[in-house]
Structure formats: structure tokens, C-alpha cells
Automatic annotation (TrEMBL), chains A, D:
Keyword Glycoprotein in record: no
Native species: Novosphingobium beihaiensis
Keyword field: Electron transport, Oxidoreductase, Periplasm, Signal, Transport
Range of residues in the leader sequence: 1-21
A Pfam family recorded for this sequence: Me-amine-dh_H
Protein name: Methylamine dehydrogenase
Cell compartments where the protein resides: Periplasm
Subcellular location, principal: periplasm
UniProtKB/TrEMBL annotation, chains B, C:
Protein name: Methylamine dehydrogenase (amicyanin)
Enzyme class of the recorded protein, top EC level: oxidoreductase
Organism classification: Bacteria, Pseudomonadati, Pseudomonadota, Alphaproteobacteria, Sphingomonadales
Metabolic or biological pathway: One-carbon metabolism; methylamine degradation; formaldehyde from methylamine: step 1/1
Key words of the record: Disulfide bond, Electron transport, Oxidoreductase, Periplasm, Signal, Transport, TTQ
Length: 386, 177, 177, 386
């Protein structure tokens, strides 16, 4: 707007009939003096979410109903962010050097008040993995008591943080495994390089690690780090590059149950995709390629046509999948390719879709039609309100 | 145009009046409760007094009074940065989690509804990273850092507990008589 | 495709082999002289052994061997980040003012000139902000963080004196026999 | 390149006549094993410059002859950067908080080696002004012994830093004035809000401030902070919004001499621009709107057609002006608007022009024709090698 300049050489004829007098029938009275103040948020809505990009410093809190930005939380590069289950706090797991690119390393969970977004306190951490675009290197237990931070320094461990006591418990080492999906109130699921899971249970104060048998081919058809897990139900869905879905149940007692995998393509009446080269299939892809609506049991997956090893490719379609029947219920073409998808966890769910350039599309999940839009600062990820 | 208006003299007085021995010059930036530029200029701007319709800038001729989330909203004639109205705040309200700087730069903007000039304080909201929404850079009577209170490139978070810029508000100070 | 190649076993062994009591797991990140992943994998990759022409990926089919400042240069089959060749460095040379990380992730790339597979170590140059030139994100056999040495999203500056990512090199380790 | 994907459904017919076999007559032997190393710069060239943007963390060192990036130096947001006159060091004046957006404020000059770009040492500062796009809040004396840092906290002062002894001298307060143009070996010129200059001389160890009479109308026709000053000759050119040029001579003894101002437009056979509204003139504009070649006595100014108060508008033309005759020698139309201009200080000068989006055009100043190009990360500024 401001760059639209009138370049007529002399504008002095302008004097008559000022443009600004046209529109306004009854001009509002101009207040004399205003005071500055600071906004406080209303109680968190079910359609709120954070959009953030690993290499920018603001996590934008956005109301999905309007696309409007409600506020922002400062995040260091490569941070994680989470709501507490009661939405009263915002947690940022972050790593900051005392002189930007040098100086002393400081790892911490920074706790913000959910209504004022003011910094409440910091809980120092012994470390955390620094990696781009990772959602499941940080999670919160179903009851909100514990936070789990994945660290690789380079030995692998999960750092269990008592959020109530603001205390870090001894790290639980998980050699050869990574990630920290909260499962229930005292469980954590990690994925291992041999295609198995390591399941931590820290009920009763002492952490125990159980290892499942290998069940997926981690070399030839890996499952996405940014797969989905619902801490409350202890049910998660690991999605592989080729579109295999592994249902995992954990969090009550030790270990985890893994169901027989099924194929996204078969759910859409196609042959299942294989990993062999020189074949083009419909495949999942992107940075946050899958979302899970725990209430309806629906997965939403970003799909593109491509050859194998194109697992970072943006989605051309969004597939809605029923985890009970393994059927693809609907396929929606995307006007613009999307890197990330998320779904709100309420009775009238919204879908959030992020373009690589930062544009966010917000859809009504019932109709798969666009309801609002927003702007973010890059190929963003989403963290939805619990 | 008056070349030595009261506004200008006010600003200069303010800038030069900070004597080298003044207690003000010793105040650290962490001290929120002691704004070192006044919260609200007590003398009213005078520069725009004799601004006839002919004297209007391009910005003023095209400004509107209905949508404060757009760069051409009338109060934004000298704003630079992200509009707080797009960031969870309002025209004089900082977004949650930020702090209104006690210091500000000022502009004199004409309200198209009454054709009168008003003094606007552009108060930055500080403490978290740049909001990044609705970026505007309007320059009516914008000056350089040697006239600091008319300069919109300075990080105007002096006196706030953090110098990190988030967004800018446009607070009505009063009519420029 | 071999699903349990020696490369994979090597990587897994490496990852799992870091026992909880290992001295390695106690080493802080500031210790430059003690790389915790090996400088050069001593076992050679095997995955590509039986890669016939039919087994080539899209990247390999379109790769070139003449311009190492382009994303389709053959060694970059699994690189993610800014090419050091565009940042004042070279294919195995860090730009001035940065430090070559003693740790790296690896890829197996096919040289179109001889059709053979080679093991490439993607060694990050660390210490200053992202170079921002020639950004590439190639994904041949790219894996997830639970197979760290095949993952290109991790900040591979372990063992360097700063974890700040600047750019990535593609160091020839040897033929993947 | 990497996104150009072949989407033929099945590519298995590819087997014959591999594409990669075509081009290369004698394939180069592939080396067996390589060692990692780190590049060291050759001695600095006269065509080297830094391009940087106030809100990004890398100052790019670019060779103007090729447009190639030779290396980079980390800068905090809102930093200044300078070469030492002998090009052996790079100085960054920067402000870093210990926790990014919070914690302890740390102001410093960070000194890098000019060949290795390694951090050599830091000199802590008592403060500095934080403002976007300012070049002359930091400068180096002609002999390289002193650095000058402008601080506004909010009282105005110049911080004199002895770079040899790595020591900060007592700040010199300059109430009502700002900026710190080095003039000679022990002089500093600041511009004041009443249209005068404050001239610091710190020869003999004690700083003295001399004030000139007001000579420009700071309210109605301000001079750009990003005007130009040559420390060696003690000659500078203050450029006003309307295109008035004020020649300033300082640095030998106390005070400063200001010549009669002249008009860019008159130098181009036009009426001089006035400050009154509703008139469109050719006016200077941009972020770094003027460059000065001290050897040839030429100014290069970014000019646009606009109304007064459009001083940040990008240039549509580049005007080459002779400071001796006040004549505009050449006017070059710019294909894309430019925000910044700089000129190298050697016998075969290059011009650097920055688009708002970050593209950099490098011209031969003799012919005003493009010689090379480069890419930067935003509306960048330039600091050329001395």
C-alpha cells in the first residue's frame, strides 16, 4: 500500500475535494489521550496453535478460527514448544549460547504463563539434541507432570523433567534409540535404529527401559521422526516413507504393542508402494507429514507422487485415513504444496496446512474447505492446543 | 512551512537538555520505572498547525481511518515496523508477553475525518522477537538519529526490561494545536 | 536391495555400541580433539554394491561431475544445507573463520563418470551463522534421527568448539566396495 | 535443480544408454580419501567488501571482481563492521544478550583476524546505540589506532577505543548530537539536532568538543546519517533529503569547515528540489543512498522521483556527481530499484548496488556496466575495503 506512489509531476491541483472526505459519513471522535497497556489472552481455545520455523525466533500463537495472531513466544533456533495439558503454561525447550554463536551453552525449559505469555521460570537442562524440524524430541506426559527431552551428546538419552518440582531427574540412556513420545503419565516411547522401540516407564520413581523386537526396516523404509502419538490414549501411528502405518500402544505398564502394519495406498485401492527405485508412487512427504485426530481416529497425510527417498517432498494431496478400517476416506488436492499438517483436538476439528514459503491454510476438517489463512516466517511446523 | 516550530524546539531542547551531569544520563537501560524520554510529550506539536490541504503529504492524502491493521491507517504516518494490531495487540496495546516501552518516537499525522493534525507516540512493544506481521515503513517528517525522537530506525525499547523489538503501537497523544 | 547391508550394520553398531558407561558418552561438546563419531568410517559402505543402473535414484540419474557449486553435483546426493563451495570453502574445505566438525553424517553417492558408488562424509563447518548461499536438500537414503549418521537435519557440529552451523562439505571417504 | 522431478509413472525403461555416460570424454580419477581443512584468505583485495543486513547474523565478505563469497563474519543483530586501514583485522561493534532476548547485555568490539577470520579478542564497551541500517555509528581513525562508537543511552556520547591497548577511554558526551565519523587520526565529527556539528579532538589524550554554527535545517531538510566521510582526507559530504550537498572538512586541529551547499538537481540542469509538499522531484533515497570515491572526487547517489519525505525510497537512477564542479556527470537508469550504493577505493573502482530483496549488482564505475552479481540476505549495506 505504502509503495503505491502517485508520480504525477505536480499535484497542486489537488486542493479541491479532498479524497479523505468521501467515505466517512459520521467521523468517529478522535480520543484525546490514550494510555499504553498490554493484552492478556482469554482462556485458550481448542482451535489455537503455535506455528514456528526452526530457524526463526518467534513461535506465533494463532487462532485457527480467524487466522489472527494472538501473541508470540520467543524461541531460540532449533527449539521445541508445547502447551501444558491444562493450557495454563507454555513450555519452550531451547538452547542458547551466552554470546549468540559462542560462549557458554545453556539448555533449558523456559516456562511461560499461558494467559500473559510472560516468562515464569526456567528449568536448566543437561543438554538436548539440536536438529531441524523435529517435533518429537520434546513432549509432555498426559497429566502434565513431566516433560521429556531427547538428548544426543552423542550418547542417546531421555531427560525426564518434573515440571511441578522444577527438577531434572537422572537421564535415562537409550543407546541406539532416539525421540521421546510421551505415553500416558509415566511412559516414553523412543524409536531405535534397528527398527525396534525402547519404552521407558518411570512409574514409582525408577526408570526402566523395555525393548521391543524389531518390527520395521529402519534402513530400507524408515518411519518418520515426525510421526504422531497421543499421550492420553497411549496410541500412536508411526508412518514409514513408503506409506506403511504401524499402530503402537504404550503407556500402561511396560513395553509396547505393535499392530500389523497396513498400507496407505491399499487403503486408496492402489497397490502398496514399494521401496524399489525407478517407480513413481503416491508417497507421504514433507516436514510434518501426518496429523492424528484422536477422537475420530483419523490420520491426515500429505501425499505426493514421487520416487522413493523423496520423503521431504511437499504434499500435493491431503489424504484422510480411518485407522480402524485402514481406508482412505477422502483425498483433497492442495492448490499449493504443503510441508506440514496438523489437526485440532476438538469436536469441530480444523486442519492446518503450511506452504514452504510460510503461508498457512486453515481448513474445516468436516468439509475440507478453507476457513481462514495466516502468514508465518518460513516452512513452519504446528503445535496445536491439547 | 515553519522551520523552527515548537515541536522541533521541544525535541532539540529535550535532546540537548540532557546535561552531561544529569542524573538521567546515568540511568541504566534496565530501569523500567524511570523513562528518560518523557512518557507523553507535555508540549504539543506545532509543526502541523498551518498545514492546509495543500500541505498534505502523499501519505495523508491516501490515509484511511477504518482499518488499523493496514499501513495506510492515518495514525501510521511515521511508523516503522510490525503493526501491533496484527500481532495480538491493539493500536495502543502491546501483545501478550511484551512490554510497552516507556519511551517512543513521535509523528504528527492528519486525521482525514476532521482534517486536523494529531501528535502520535509510536511506542514499541519489547521483549520478544519481531512479530513479522504487517510490516510498514512510513516516513512523514521522519528524521535521523541526531533528532532521535523523530527517528523510527532506533530500537525504542529504552527503559523496557528487554531491548528486543516485537512491534509498534501508535498512541494518540493529543491534537497538534 | 539388501536390507541388512554392512553400512547399516556399521551405523547401527556405532549407535548402539555407545554403551551407557562408555567414556564417549561423558565427553562434552567442547572437546575438539576427541571426535565421538569416528572421523572416517573405517568400514566401507556396502549398500550400493549391487546398485545396477536400474537401481539408481532420481538424483543419481541427473547428477553431474563438473560443478561442485550446484545441488546436482554427484557427491551431494544426501546433503542438506549451504554448500561450502559457495561460501569461501571447497568440496572438503571449510570457509575462513569456521571449523570442520570432527563428526559427520554419511551418504553413498554414485559417480556418473565411472558408475561406481562412493562413501561421502558430509562434514559441517561450524562457528558462524548460516552461509545462506547455494542451499540444497538432497535425500538419497536419508534417514531419521534414530539412525543419526544417515540424518542430515541434525546439527553435525559435535566436537567443534561452536554448534553454530555455517555450511556443509562433501568429503570423499572412499569407494563403497 | 533438485526440485525438477521426472514424474513419468514408470522409469524402468531407463536401463539402456545411461545419461551420465554422455558428456565426459575422460572422466577424472576419483580420489580415494580426502582430509578436511579450513581456508585462509589471501591478502585483502581492493575490491573486497562486506555486505550485511541489520537483522541477519552473517556479514558476507565478497570479492567484487567475481561476486564470490570469500567467507563470513558472525554479527549480532544491529551490528557495525569495519576493516582496519591495513586490512589486517575486521572489527565488529555488537551487542549480545546472554540469553538471546533476555539476560545480561554485553556490548563489545569483536576483533577478527583479517586472513583467518578467526576471533582474536573482544573489547568490552560501556554501550552503543541500537538502530537499524546505520553505518556511521562506528568508525576507525585514519591511522587505525582508534575506534569510535556512538552511544545513546539515552544521553549522547562517543566512546573512544584504543584498539592497540584494547582499552576504552572515558566517553565523550555530545549532548544533542549523534554519529561518529572518524576525521584524521584523532578527530570525530558528529551531527547535531540543531543543524550544527560537534567536532571531537582527542589529540594529546584529552578530548575537546568544538561546536560549529548551525548550517542546515535539521527539521525541514535533514542530512542523512548514512552520508559519507573519508577519514584520511578529513573530507566528507553530508547529503540532505532534498539533495543539498554540504562539504565538511575536519580532522586537522579543532572544529570543522563547511562549504557553501550545492544542489544535485542543479548539477543536472534542473531547478533545485524544494521541501514543499505536492511536488515531485528527483530526490536521493534508500538506506545507503550515497557513496564517495575519494580519489576521483565523485559522489554516487541513488535517486528516485518522488515527493518530499520519501527519503527511504529505493533509487531508480544512479547519479555520478563531481564534487569539484558540482556537475552531474552521468545518470544511469537501474533495471531494479536499489537501496544501497558503495564504491571501492582504488584506481579501477567498482560500484556495489543492493536491491531490497538482497540481490547485489557490481558495476565497473568507468563504464557503469554490470561486471558481476551476488546474493545477500535482505536489503544489505556495504562496507568496502579501505
Amino acid at each position: 500500500m505504502k509503495k503505491a506512489k502517485c508520480l504525477a509531476i505536480v499535484l497542486s491541483l489537488f486542493s479541491a475535494a479532498p479524497a479523505w472526505a468521501g467515505g466517512s459519513a459520521s467521523p468517529a471522535p478522535v480520543p484525546e489521550v490514550e494510555e499504553s497497556d498490554v493484552a492478556v489472552l482469554p482462556p485458550a481455545g481448542a482451535h489455537w496453535m503455535f506455528a514456528y520455523f526452526s530457524f526463526r525466533n518467534l513461535a506465533q500463537l494463532i487462532d485457527g478460527d480467524t487466522g489472527k495472531q494472538l501473541g508470540g513466544v520467543h524461541i531460540a533456533q532449533l527449539s521445541n514448544i508445547a502447551f501444558s495439558p491444562d493450557k495454563k503454561h507454555i513450555y519452550v525447550a531451547e538452547t542458547i549460547w551466552s554470546k549468540g554463536n559462542r560462549g557458554t551453552r545453556q539448555d533449558m525449559i523456559t516456562v511461560y504463563d499461558g494467559r500473559t505469555l510472560k516468562l515464569d521460570h526456567e528449568i536448566p537442562l543437561p543438554g538436548r539434541l539440536l536438529a531441524g524440524d523435529r517435533l518429537n524430541t520434546f513432549s509432555i506426559s498426559a497429566d502434565g507432570r513431566y516433560a521429556y527431552v531427547y538428548d544426543m551428546a552423542p550418547a542417546s538419552s531421555v531427560i525426564v523433567v518434573d515440571l511441578e518440582k522444577r527438577k531434572v531427574l537422572p537421564p535415562v540412556e537409550i543407546p541406539g534409540c532416539a525421540l521421546a513420545f510421551a505415553a500416558g503419565n509415566t511412559g516414553v516411547v523412543s524409536v531405535c535404529g534397528d527398527g525396534s522401540l525402547a519404552v521407558i516407564s518411570h512409574a514409582g520413581g525408577k526408570a526402566e527401559v523395555t525393548q521391543t523386537a524389531p518390527f520395521f526396516d529402519a534402513g530400507e523404509d524408515p518411519v518418520y521422526d515426525n510421526s504422531v502419538f497421543d499421550a492420553k490414549s497411549g496410541k500412536g501411528y508411526l508412518l514409514s516413507y513408503s506409506g506403511r502405518v504401524y499402530e503402537v500402544t504404550a503407556g500402561s505398564g511396560s513395553g509396547a504393542q505393535i499392530a500389523q502394519p497396513w498400507s496407505l495406498q491399499e487403503g486408496a485401492h492402489m497397490p502398496r508402494a514399494e521401496t524399489k527405485p525407478l517407480v513413481v508412487n503416491w508417497l507421504p512427504g514433507g516436514q510434518q507429514p501426518v496429523a492424528y485426530d484422536a477422537a475420530t481416529g483419523r490420520l491426515y497425510v500429505l501425499m505426493h507422487k514421487g520416487e522413493f527417498w523423496s520423503y521431504k517432498e511437499a504434499g500435493e494431496e491431503l489424504w484422510e485415513v480411518d485407522v480402524a478400517t485402514h481406508k482412505v476416506l477422502r483425498r483433497a488436492a492442495l492448490d499449493k504444496p504443503a510441508m506440514s499438517v496438523a489437526v485440532s483436538q476438538d469436536k469441530e476439528p480444523l486442519l492446518f496446512l503450511a506452504e514452504p514459503g510460510g503461508a498457512i491454510h486453515i481448513w474445516d476438517a468436516a468439509t475440507l474447505s478453507e476457513k481462514a489463512s495466516a502468514a508465518s516466517m518460513g516452512p513452519s511446523h504446528f503445535v496445536v492446543a491439547p | 512551512m515553519t522551520s523552527q516550530s515548537r515541536t522541533e524546539r521541544f525535541v532539540r531542547k529535550l535532546a540537548r537538555g540532557t546535561s552531561r551531569r544529569s542524573i538521567l544520563s546515568r540511568i541504566g537501560l534496565g530501569l523500567v520505572s524511570a523513562p528518560v524520554f518523557p512518557l507523553l510529550p507535555v508540549e504539543r506539536a506545532h509543526a502541523a498547525k498551518d498545514r492546509s490541504v495543500q500541505a498534505k503529504t502523499s501519505f495523508a492524502r491516501h490515509a484511511q481511518t477504518t482499518d488499523d491493521t493496514k499501513c495506510d491507517y492515518w495514525r501510521y504516518c511515521a511508523i516503522d515496523g510490525s503493526l501491533c494490531t496484527c500481532c495480538g495487540g491493539g493500536i495502543h496495546t502491546c501483545p501478550p508477553g511484551t512490554e510497552a516501552s516507556p519511551t517512543s518516537w513521535v509523528g504528527t499525522c492528519i486525521n482525514p475525518d476532521d482534517g486536523k493534525a494529531y501528535l502520535i507516540a509510536y511506542r514499541d512493544c519489547c521483549g520478544t522477537a519481531d512479530c513479522g506481521q504487517c510490516y510498514c515503513d512510513n516516513t512523514d517528517r521522519g528524521n535521523q538519529v541526531y533528532r532521535p525522537q523523530e527517528n523510527n530506525d532506533i530500537i525504542w525499547c529504552f527503559g523496557a526490561s528487554s531491548m528486543e523489538y516485537h512491534c509498534s503501537t501508535a498512541v494518540m497523544v493529543g491534537a497538534a494545536e
